[in-house]
Amino acid sequence: MRGARIVGMRAPHADVLREMGARGFAARVTGLAVEAVTRRAKLVVLELEGGDRIAVQPRFTGALLLDPTADLDDGYVCVRWPLSDGRTLVYRDVRRLGTVACMSPARWAAYEGALGPEPLDASFDGGALHARLARSRRPVKVVLMDQRALAGVGNIYATESLWRARVDPSRAASSLTAAETDALALALREILTASIVARGTTFRDYRDARGGRGAFAAQLEAYGRAGEPCTRCGARLASTMAIDGRTTVFCAWCQR
Ligand SMILES: [Zn+2]
Predict the structure, then answer these.
(1) Ion ligand 1, residue ranges at CB < 5 A
(2) Which letter does DSSP use for residue 168 in this model?
(3) Based on the structure, what is the number of domains in the chain?
(4) By Cβ atoms counted within 10 A, which residue in 60, 61, 112, 206 is the most buried?
(5) How many whole angstroms separate alpha carbon 37 and alpha carbon 233?
(6) How much is the pLDDT for 19?
(7) Count of CB atoms situated within 10 Å of the CB of 228
């Protein structure tokens, strides 16, 4: 998309918009070129000429799609941006829990500054993670998913990385040793990297920009496997909602 210009905006379901209403949003972005498409935490970020950003948070059922024919119209299209290259950028969301925000450079700086570090940044390591975990007695899984402590990790990748690092998800974050934190930081980086290579985890709803499914679900060791044998020790994987109200799958034998 880099270099393409936004030539208009229509919002059939404007309730996903944040920071600005449909009319103001459209007036603000129409005519601007997309200078870069990046990611921060769970947001897809379109950096526009002049410094404004469109920040899209797809959450459970949202997808940002590049529609080559501009005729996608199944009732779930929330926002549509025709581009100067003839394609149309579409935000589609069945349950409309996701959001599409337009932010000025100052607003973005404030928003982005409140997010934790990126696990895939070169500077992220066990020491950086330990500094974040040491401040909290909450369960380590909850802190991993807290976007202010660490950016971009949700239920699937928190569950997987704790399994890989052999850490009990309910442990107090501050109780992890340096060795455990090193293992967890490495597991996070390995799992996120492998999932990106596989184009993401489509357990149900996730779609990439071309509408394709991600293949990482086939590599999941814990998430979605409650009751099945642990691939490391053979014990039956357990499941609990008690940690954070979300499903956590873990091995009670080899996660300590
Ligand atoms: Zn096990």
Answers:
(1) 230, 232-233, 235, 251, 253-254
(2) -
(3) 2
(4) 206
(5) 42
(6) 95
(7) 12
Residue 8 forms part of a structural domain: no
What token pair was written down for 28? 């603000």
User: What single letter denotes the amino acid at residue 144?
Assistant: L
What pLDDT is stored for residue 237 in this prediction?
A: 98
| Positions of the chain with pLDDT under 50 | none
Q: Which domain does 102 fall in, by range?
A: 14-113
Same domain assignment for residues 59 and 99: yes
Rg of the chain (C-alpha set): 20
Which single residue is written with the structure tokens 């119209």? 73
Phi, psi at residue 43, to the nearest 5°?
A: -100, 135
Write down which residue in 58, 88, 113 finishes a domain: 113
Q: What is the CATH number of the domain that holds 88?
A: 3.20.190.10
- State the distance from the centre of ligand 1 to the C-alpha of 100, rounded, in angstroms: 40
Residues 165 and 241 in one domain: yes
Give residue 9 CA to ligand 1 midpoint distance, Å: 51
